[in-house]
């Protein structure tokens, strides 16, 4: 079965002589069970409430704007020459962030290029994994089908671990090839990564999963906050029809 090859390929990443630790093994078993199940669970359990999605998008835009404004004022006062060079580089990122949030709010599905253009913003301040605030982590936990009712330190640790395991599975799946998955495995793989695939055609699910893997396999460990946010960014406006 294609799924078993994914799990074996993932295990090979640790080396044939050293099996994965018990925690990762349990996570892989959970993922395997999820892909082996029948139809995805009820969409009511999986779709993040619209208020959560809107607040998350607004938070990303607002947080970025506030921090950038403070940093710009600091550089302008203390390092005026460096500030000129800095603004030339950073204006591109700010424009991309604003454009992406605007697209999302208009109901447009962003492309992988739109998302990858923001990788710098998600590797450190203001949206790196270690800088996420409690409100944002709770919204992301709901999107990942994880309970949000935990202290912030536990939410952060669990989101990190969950995203890291998915990232590692993505690398193994990319090596295997989406074409090796059955229709049900494709739909379940999309569902695990945030897309409510219940009523989306198989071919569209394969297209979406291909986009996800291209993003995931392009990211470094320090940029996994962007992969976590892609659970919302890449799926919220995706439909069963063409763009």
UniProtKB/TrEMBL annotation:
**Its principal location?**
mitochondrion
**What InterPro entries does the entry give?**
LETM1-like_RBD, LETM1/MDM38-like
What Gene Ontology molecular-function terms does this entry list?
ribosome binding
* Transmembrane helix listed as a keyword: yes
Location(s), subcellular: Mitochondrion inner membrane
**Entry keyword set:** Membrane, Mitochondrion, Mitochondrion inner membrane, Transmembrane, Transmembrane helix
Q: Name one Pfam family in it.
A: LETM1_RBD
Q: How does it sit in the membrane?
A: Single-pass membrane protein
Domain (Letm1 RBD) ranges: 63-243
* Name this polypeptide is given: LETM1 domain containing 1
Species of origin: Sus scrofa
